[in-house]
Design goal:
mainly beta; 43% strand; globular
């Protein structure tokens, strides 16, 4: 099980950093993706990072505002979110999969597929 943290209430234009970690296994062997689900909408991909951290992908809606990073020594993946907008309001989930292409296709391919491990999510609310 993955554990997300860092969500909260922030004003438009503000910033938050989400964290994804686990005590059950080493994340360094997994590609990691961030996803979100707004009320009444389907889950969508936000960003993903390869096991090495070299390859990163972003959904068009967050390109230039969000940044994904990983710290394998601390077994944590981060999502830095800047210039937040009300439409970014959602529950944010992280997911892990051995196969990077499965994560990547779920983020940029338009449809979230079956991934190996998910977290329970953290709520981000962007509102004035």
């Amino acid at each position: 099980q993955l554990v997300e943290s860092g969500g909260g209430l922030v004003q438009p234009g503000g910033a938050l950093t989400l964290s994804c970690t686990t005590s059950e296994f080493s994340l360094e062997y997994y590609a990691i993706g961030w996803f979100r689900q707004a009320p009444g909408k389907e889950r969508e991909g936000v960003s993903c990072v390869s096991r090495s951290g070299v390859i990163k992908n972003y959904a068009d809606s967050v390109q230039g505002r969000f940044a994904i990073s990983r710290d394998n020594a601390n077994n944590t993946v981060y999502l830095q979110m800047n210039n937040l907008k009300p439409e970014d309001t959602a529950v944010y989930y992280c997911a892990a999969d051995i196969i990077f292409q499965r994560i990547r296709s779920s983020v940029v391919g338009g449809q979230v597929g079956a991934l190996e491990v998910w977290g329970r999510g953290t709520l981000v609310t962007v509102s004035s």
